[in-house]
Amino acid sequence: MNTPDPLPDTMVLYGEHFDSRMMLGTSRYPSPEILLACVKATRPAFLTVSLRRQMPHALSTEPQGNSFWALLKDAKTPLLPNTAGCHSVSEVVATAQMAREVFETDWIKLEIIGDDYTLQPDTLQLPQAAKSLIDLGFKVLPYCTEDLVLCQKLLDVGCQAVMPWAAPIGTGKGPINPYAMQSLRDRLKVPMIVDAGLGVPSHACQVMEWGFDAVLLNTAVALAQNPLDMAKAFAHAVNAGRLAFKSGAMQPQDKAQASTPLMGTPFWHQS
Prior knowledge:
single chain; alpha/beta; TIM Barrel; three-stranded parallel beta sheet; 9 helices; 10 strands
């Protein structure tokens, strides 16, 4: 099985180094076997898991859940629990503390939802929730919008990385506000992981070309007609975008410029 070559530069989050710049969610796949195949083919930095759906201490009465927990262990990939479904700071803290005990990790993807229809993050409560978790010793990766001021506030309370969306979760629309995303990337010099809204590999390549550090994917892979091939395509796109960013793209020009100089070429005059 061909897999993308690892990049020579690593991503650093909270002082830890990761070879991969791609993360995968674990829901909505056609089968656990297909999920595991996607993980093995792409070697993601993290697998996100939801405490409310995937609690291992409830698995003795749920054979399907037990199989899923065994799969996560077999994947041999760091887990990133999330606080999906939480609407208040107190819910976030309680869920994160349970996740730390269950999954045995201090990493947490912070989600606090402000709108159930779009699943847009609650931008007013997000900094407070992040601070509460950081004070408890968590390594917080906050899911947020591409709002510059919000992201700065998250950094001010101690977050060392942010996870802005490209578009609402599950829409697959790709970056719907390129100006804001590029401004965010230009202004804040911290790791940024694009989380939510990517639909096709070219979307991932584009945000990586802008200088974002990684992408988190779930629906775009899980709901593809061939999830395994789509996961591979995204992995190649992420690597291509990163390499393009490091290479330094040419500046767009207003006028056409010949790639071959005219000096020294024959000129035939026809009378």
